[in-house]
Predict the structure.
Amino acid sequence: MQYNENEFIQIQNSLMKKIVCEDKFDFNAVKTVAGVDLAYWNDNNDQEYAVCCIVIIDKTTHKLIETKSYSDKIEVPYMPGFLAFRELPLVIKTAELLENKPDLYMFDGNGYLHPRHMGIATHASFYLNAPTIGVAKTYFRVEKGLDYIEPNTSAGSYTDIEWNGEVYGRALRTHNGIKPVFVSVGNNISLDTAVKITLDMVNEESRIPIPTRLADLETHKMRAALSGNHSDAFQT
């Protein structure tokens, strides 16, 4: 199967017009937050697989509410800037398994911080019917030479990541003296609120938010369980 980057770009450009970087919900009314992450592996025949895990927690108590996962073959090759086309089918399938509808999704990845503002957190939002946030552990350079400025060393400090006068995201320090995470709007939320929620979802155990941290841990567990013998789609 051939994958046409020009077609992917056309899809991204079309969806980009629909992104809303404003709060379309009452932040104080958010009760549940979901974390989304994926992990990959190859079988003995070099067929690539991935598992997507979605974890829902209570926003106030941080108590775990639900965990679901779905794994399958990956058919789209990795191409920088087009990660969503690889991951979105599994994200949608996993979200369909959820018994509880989260008020908000946080992705271990980018959203607006993307050359066409269409990272996985943004692209997925059009299928999840909920506000989304991207919180990446590593910096994705959306333009050649566009580096971020280190925020102050204190927790809560941030610097905007700008290109041609437009803010793409923020480098955010979630703990004193610890390397920053990179927060960007997914959809239907402002960057200020995305940063507030990210800080609200961090505890002493990690610099990344609890929902995506738990999802990350779950993907490692599921990958270990599935990678030894995997031939068909699998859900839990």
